[in-house]
Amino acid sequence: MEQVRAFLTGLAQELITDIDDLASVDALSVSSQACGESGAAALLQMAQLIGEAADEPGDVAAALDRAAPTGGLWLVVCMVVACFAAMRADYPSRQDAQVARSAISARAETVYGVAGIFGAETIGWLISLTGITVGHLSRTAAERAPAVRVETGVSLPSTLLAYDLYGSAARAGEIVDRNKISTSLVMPVSFEAVAQ
User: What are the tens digits of pLDDT across the range 44-90?
Assistant: First the structure.
């Protein structure tokens, strides 16, 4: 449990900047030092708070993947963090929400195999949490416009492309970010954009 507590504390420091939220994580960290169910419950509350309070919910999955968790409790707390963060994240396109849903489902399959050692109540709670998260992501995917491939035949500035696509040059940053372009002045002739 000590390794899981240290991992969650480090994750909170990496992902949360709000002082009050960090203080809450610290208080839960102290509570998690208790033996038995109360300590484990405090770890799960820490995981939930981290998922809910992360400044950039989209960065949570990458941080969890870097940690390469091992062991049942570690996988369970990572699942809790991932679910709460996934429900808060913004998904500009249908495909973005679908990718997040697939990632949560894949993570859940791994966790369900080891979570049984914590009892039926824990596995039931995880299944419910995952179901709520997957349902939310499915609804979000249904509500979002799809991402489409745009081909121009010539390199153009992102502001001009944004104006042509959306009627607003202010959305140029969205196109640049989606395609991970280093210079917005010269966009590739083929790129991805959200249809709208």
Answer: 899 999 999 988 877 888 888 887 666 788 889 999 999 999 999 99
Asked if 135 and 159 sit in the same domain, the reply is no
43 φ/ψ angles, rounded to the nearest 5 degrees: -65, -40
Residues 99, 176, single domain; the answer is no
Residue 80 domain boundaries? 2-143
**Cβ-contact 83, 130 below 8 angstroms:** yes
Structure tokens given for 40: 């484990």
How confident is the model over 85-107, as a mean pLDDT?
Answer: 94
Q: How far apart, in Å, do the first and last CA atoms of the chain sit? A: 48
pLDDT (0 to 100) of residue 59: 84
- 108 with 156, same domain? no
Are residues 39 and 32 in contact, defined by beta-carbon separation less than 8 angstroms? yes
What is the model's pTM?
0.83
d(CA 19, CA 134) in angstroms, rounded, equals 30
Domain boundary among 107, 128, 143: 143
